[in-house]
């Protein structure tokens, strides 16, 4: 198969979808790899490193899209990329369709095959291609939250861990999944007083067992959230419903319960956000203030630490990408249930229910679509 690796052009997105080591694996399996010039530069990988691994370097993004049968990316295509996408072209990347109606319609119109990292799912309901970036984003949420609590950045002027004789900051983490767990661990390591909420009692029992003594577990419900945010200095939104919009656990009206200078970091913003007032921002302009509450809503947080993020992402995506290249997307999805759940759009049809429901569009059964595609061959 012909694989294309374009340079990411989303604002301040410094990651790249494949390392030179990944290129070498594809070459070993007999595939051709085309990498856009300087695609890996911001992640610490030179064009020479890719060429030495067996890739051919192409000068423009249009060249890469034009030649490739499968495009491997990090973030969803942006508007300037839409015209470059060809019918039947396989795109393997983070899409988060449920948070972008325009992207959804664009991919339907281009009749692309869109396999989304974030909905590839194992039998135990875990999301193997979301985990590494969730780990990065969860840890970063505390790093960024601690920074924006500083007074020059409009925060309360509180040191996260306090000092002897002075109480540490209070951190509320909404969601006990990968992001929330990593955020709570980091905040606890800083010395903060941490509360983590989840709707699963079993998950809270587990977190209570593994977390340090300065982390308290509380059942997530509207009453408890209202009680907690009145005393909290930093709120981390870490709620995910695979392939669908996150629920709004904190509404606009609830901001008045918080004290001025409170910081909210909504890690779920790329899936619609779990805090109503959060809208996606960029690393260039990461924050805004509503009702004296500092909102940090960068949709691609791991892009700020691209070396770590690129290595972590490639470690997770490469085995799946190789299956797609070795077998073709149809056979790979039939034989691998995890990849099948990653299919969101196939040749003009939505095959993931959460996406169809988000925008009121027709849903097509993935099994039927796959069987029809195989019969056409």
Automatic annotation (TrEMBL):
Record-level GO cellular component terms: plasma membrane
Domain of life, per lineage: Bacteria
Residue ranges constituting the Alanine dehydrogenase/pyridine nucleotide transhydrogenase NAD(H)-binding domain according to the UniProt record: 149-297
Group of enzyme by EC: oxidoreductase
EC number of the protein: 1.4.1.1
Top-level taxonomy: Bacteria, Pseudomonadati, Bacteroidota, Flavobacteriia, Flavobacteriales
Example GO biological process: L-alanine catabolic process
Similarity remark: Belongs to the AlaDH/PNT family.
Residues engaged in binding NAD(+): 134, 198, 203, 220, 239-240, 267-270, 298-301
Active site: 96 (proton donor/acceptor), 270 (proton donor/acceptor)
Assigned keywords, A-Z: NAD, Nucleotide-binding, Oxidoreductase
Protein name in the entry: Alanine dehydrogenase
Stretches assigned to the Alanine dehydrogenase/pyridine nucleotide transhydrogenase N-terminal domain: 4-137
Catalytic reaction(s) noted: L-alanine + NAD(+) + H2O = pyruvate + NH4(+) + NADH + H(+)
CDD domains in UniProt: L-AlaDH (cd05305)
Coiled coil: none
GO molecular function, a single term: alanine dehydrogenase activity
Binding-site list for substrate: 15, 75
């Amino acid at each position: 198969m012909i694989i294309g690796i374009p340079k990411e052009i989303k604002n301040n997105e410094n990651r790249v979808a494949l390392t030179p080591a990944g290129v070498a694996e594809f070459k070993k399996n007999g595939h051709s790899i085309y990498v856009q010039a300087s695609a890996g530069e911001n992640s610490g990988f030179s064009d020479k490193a890719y060429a030495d691994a067996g890739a051919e370097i192409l000068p423009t993004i249009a060249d890469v899209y034009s030649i490739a049968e499968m495009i491997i990316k990090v973030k969803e295509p942006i508007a300037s990329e839409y015209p470059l996408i060809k019918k039947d072209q396989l795109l393997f990347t983070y899409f988060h369709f449920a948070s972008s109606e325009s992207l959804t319609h664009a991919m339907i119109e281009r009749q692309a095959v869109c396999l989304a990292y974030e909905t590839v799912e194992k039998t135990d309901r875990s999301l193997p291609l979301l985990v590494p970036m969730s780990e990065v984003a969860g840890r970063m949420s505390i790093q960024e939250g601690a920074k924006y609590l500083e007074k020059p950045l409009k925060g309360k002027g509180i040191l996260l861990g306090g000092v002897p004789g002075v109480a540490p900051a209070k951190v509320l983490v909404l969601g006990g999944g990968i992001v929330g767990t990593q955020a709570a661990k980091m905040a606890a390591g800083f010395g903060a007083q941490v509360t983590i909420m989840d709707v699963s009692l079993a998950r809270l029992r587990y977190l209570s067992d593994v977390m340090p003594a300065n982390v308290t577990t509380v059942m997530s419900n509207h009453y408890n959230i209202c009680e907690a945010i009145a005393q909290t200095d930093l709120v981390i939104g870490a709620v995910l419903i695979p392939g669908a919009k996150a629920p709004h656990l904190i509404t606009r009206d609830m901001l008045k319960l918080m004290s001025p200078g409170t910081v909210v970091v909504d890690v779920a913003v790329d899936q619609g956000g779990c805090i109503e007032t959060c809208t996606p921002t960029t690393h260039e302009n990461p924050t805004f203030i509503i009702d004296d509450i500092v909102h940090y809503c960068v949709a691609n947080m791991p892009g700020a630490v691209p070396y770590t993020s690129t290595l972590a992402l490639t470690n997770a995506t490469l085995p799946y990408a190789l299956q797609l290249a070795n077998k073709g997307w149809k056979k790979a999805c039939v034989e691998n249930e995890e990849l099948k759940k990653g299919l969101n759009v196939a040749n003009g049809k939505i095959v993931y229910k959460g996406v169809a429901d988000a925008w009121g569009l027709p849903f097509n059964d993935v099994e039927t679509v796959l069987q029809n595609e195989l019969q056409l061959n």
